[in-house]
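User: I'm putting together a teaching handout on how multi-component assemblies are represented. Below are the sequence lines for each component of a complex, exactly as they appear in our records. Could you produce the 3D structure of the whole assembly as structure tokens, so the students can see both representations side by side? Please keep the chain order the same as the input.
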Amino acid sequence: MANLMAKGVSVHFGGVRALSDVNVEVPEGSIIGLIGPNGAGKTTFFNCLSRFLSCDKGTITYGDKDLRRCSPHNIVRLGIARTFQNINLFKTRTVLDNILIGMHRHIGNLVSATLSLPGALRHERSMRRRAEEIAELLGMKTEINEIVRNLPYGIQKRVEMGRALAAEPQLLLLDEPVAGCNEEETSELCKIVYSINHDQKITILLVEHDMSMVMSVCKYIYVLDFGKNIAEGTPAEIQSNPAVIEAYLGEQNAA
Amino acid sequence: MAGFFCLLLVLPLFIQGFYASLLTMTFIYIIAAIGVNILTGFTGLVTVGHGGFFAIGAYTTALMGKYLGVSMLPGLFAGGITAGVVGFLLGIIFLRLSGAFLAIGTLGFAFAIGSILNNWSIFEGREGISLPHNSIAGLKFGDVGLYYFCAITMIFLILFANSLIKSSVGRAFTAVRDSERAAESSGINLRFYKTLSFTISAALTGMAGALFAHHTNYVSSETFGDSWLSVDFLVAVVVGGQASLAGSILGGAFVVLLPYYLSEYRDFAFILKGVVLILVLLFAPAGLSDLLGRLYRKILGKIVRGQSDVSCNLRD
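Assistant: Of course. Below is the structure of the complete assembly, with chains in the same order as your input.
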């Protein structure tokens, strides 16, 4: 069983404590939500998981592997892929190229690829077929040869997801997949996220501000505020948890 | 593209020795520009120091020719390999630099090479080293022979570069250029691919340098210690078009042929090069290849539309 376990994770930037003693567990096969008001440390936590940041204290393990010993480009080899909140794509390239770059994990023999030997060309064709399947799954088959920069925001969000899926991960970390999307796009992405988990058996950790999405998709939710765990439970438990209501409404009162 | 290669191979039948020699020089610059383009255009690491690798390639074949009597072909490979090894080491040293800092670092490398050429006695400074007569397996090469040798080498290297940039390795290079974060999270090892790009880029430019040495049959620190060489390569890439092989061909031709046709007005060629560079940066930042490509599509579009008008008329 490859479960993701984060225990007592702490990070500080100078005097600011971004995360203190955060615990999150993601069992294989589940969809777990991670929510919290702005600045709660959700993205910081994601960056720790994908090794763009090192945590000062605590342990992060995936199965029997210690993630703190991995470099960022090795994370994906363990079967963990992520998306970025503020889209981080290869904007001057096509959707197809973006998905193909996501498949880098399956690059095969470097020399053979460089010299376009027959084996590499066959491998390239099979990668392209797989990329087309991913584009179809995400409902962007007609856009596959478009330059990413020219596509609407909602589609770019899907390309981001496509790039992550291309690595064929067992665990997918989604950082606000529907932020900035309209209602229609959101409900479509909800279905996609559900089908990725249900049909492809990919475990998902979802950071999201859109409560309707989190409540409908996730089975279990962790809530962060000011870099600390303040609650965890099923969607129903979270909705009635006084600490959560205070964190969110308190923020509203202050505004 | 195939037509272009065939044209190059029959061209010597129609042109005089001098023009063959001028075109040979163009091919050499095109190879060097492709080398720079792999690093600067495709991987996004700006270099102003590739004159250094050009010199390493040239001196490798010159010294091997002088002391070991090695001929052109092994000299070409040795030049490429030596430059590639130095490129690999330099790539590791410069891993943490990017943008203007990397440009300054590489410029420093070119100065260092120039200084070494001037001061280490084996390189014979401004006196220079004369190469033995160009030959392969005892067969002597004249201007036209060298033209073919350089043309075929260039064609092979263009095909290699084309295959490289279309492969997953080329995609990894552009991924590193466009977003380091996204590249890393897709499993691309930044250090490995930056160093690889440096190595391949240096090896190509080194091979160009080796060809140059055979072309002039003489190397000295006056030519190879000059940092303008590095600037010329970068200008070729920027004017021709970054991340475009056709761009490197245009750019290489630009930096060789422009000064030649304006050789009566020496300084004017120099000024014009700068003016063209500024104009390209302002009005066609993707370079001449992109500009010509758009123009071509526009004209093609007009012709196609014209034809469809005709066919409509016919149907009426």
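A couple of points students might notice: The radius of gyration of chain A is 19 Å. Strands of chain A lie at 4-13, 16-26, 31-35, 57-62, 65-66, 80-82, 171-175, 203-207, 220-225, 228-233.
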